[in-house]
# Entry
Amino acid sequence: MKSDIQIARETPLRRIKDVAEEIGIPREEIISFGRHMAKVPAGLVNPEKINQGNLILVTAITPTKAGIGKTTVSIGLVLGLNKIGKKAIVALREPSLGPVFGMKGGAAGGGYAQVLPMENINLHFTGDFHAVTTAHNTISALLDNYIFRVQGTGDDIKEVLWKRVLDVNDRSLRYIVTGLGPGNGVPQEAGFDITAASELMAILCLAENEEDLRRRIENILLGYKRNGKPFTVKDLGVAGAITVLMKDAIHPNLVQTTENTPAFVHGGPFANIAHGCNSVLATKMAMSYGDYVVTEAGFGADLGAEKFFNIKCRKSGLRPKLTVIVVTAQGLKMHGGTPEKDIKAPDINGLRKGLGNLEKHLANLAAFGQSVVVAFNKYAFDTPSEIATIRKFCEERGVSFAVNEAFTDGGNGAVELANAVVEAIENKPSGDLQFTYNLEDSIETKLNKIATGIYGARDVVLGETAMKKLRFIEGTPLERMPVCIAKTQYSFSADPKWYGVAKDFRFKINDLVINQGSEFIVAIAGEMMRMPGLPADPQAKRIDIIDGEIEGLS
# Structure
């Protein structure tokens, strides 16, 4: 089998203006980044078409460390839909350089189901991540300058909440001290998050237009003054400058798949530390020009899908007609107790035990009112008996099941899945979206409803820092915001080693972070870090440029 990068290089690409024109976007409106990438002005979203199309969410069971292949399935499904004559577009998140150089090595799909040009998309792309990083750290610099200038005036900032960000996994920057040395500022504890966890990234992905972008930037809470009054970007007086830095990033990016179908790739919040969905604008842009739109939400359905429904859909008015949940035999065996080193080998007993993880996710999706198709992402070493076991499990529960082989066969390998999706939408589409909690619920109630209802916890325990933040939030408009739980992606619990279906556990929240601009409260659970570290053997060791060609991104 050829590598992802070999397949990408051998795929003839169409000019991006031709791709745009074919779906109805005027070529003169396209903002080109070379021949094969472009930005589409946000103003081209057509509100009248958004509710006429079929929005499909792709989520997954709790993943292995290597993932489940959700992006590959999302792209493959769109290829399959186009193969059977449907006008389909995919909307995805942008890869972060952190995982690209850390664990994954690339995040643009795989095999014959990729978005292209994959090397550009995986690296600097159109500069959106850099814009977010620069805008975020410009706020940091301006805030530190303000603190330095108002020393001793009574206008001092008592508590700073705003960290810096970097799109690199760097554990040594989690906790630092800034301002050391005479005349270099006010010494204070600080730290870095990864860019995907920046509140500006969440704002970019939730903003409806430039005006909304600026409003949200103004509302970012930076800290508290000595008199206890909140201090925001608006108080700092720089919302205009920060909006200028992000004025191009707000426009969705248009690229193409390995079969030259259109793909919007825009925004990149992680689902384990943020809300895990591509931008609202990219989804709505795709729905403005496609009859079927496939979008994904990060990691397992307990994270990405929960946040997609409770945050993105609630805020934007989007309503999916169907949810596709991706499973692999490897993932099920891991959750059934098969040692991780052995999950590629046949183990029907382990697989059967692991089906409990899928069953819990199916129950959660049903609680959201979703009609579901289970997509089996097939690998070469999967056996017919493993596939038959999962198919029978789904049939017994009245859940549609399809095998996806888009990785090896492109759109032809996803025709079975595409037909299952169309049939489900036509005959048993999702009902009204049911949220896990009401905005009028208290923050504690919201956290309890997610932890007990979605994760299977007995209750929620708030640490001392979280309780302090909660007391500040109570009785204010902040209490009506959704919550975004930051937790491990490898378990329903906050323990990354508790595979399968965690039950009857206490779910501890260590901190609450007020994201006043993106308009949700981030709850930090367990030992979750908003700045990941690099693995023992980072993918960066395999990335190189040889004779002008990049290697190691697959």
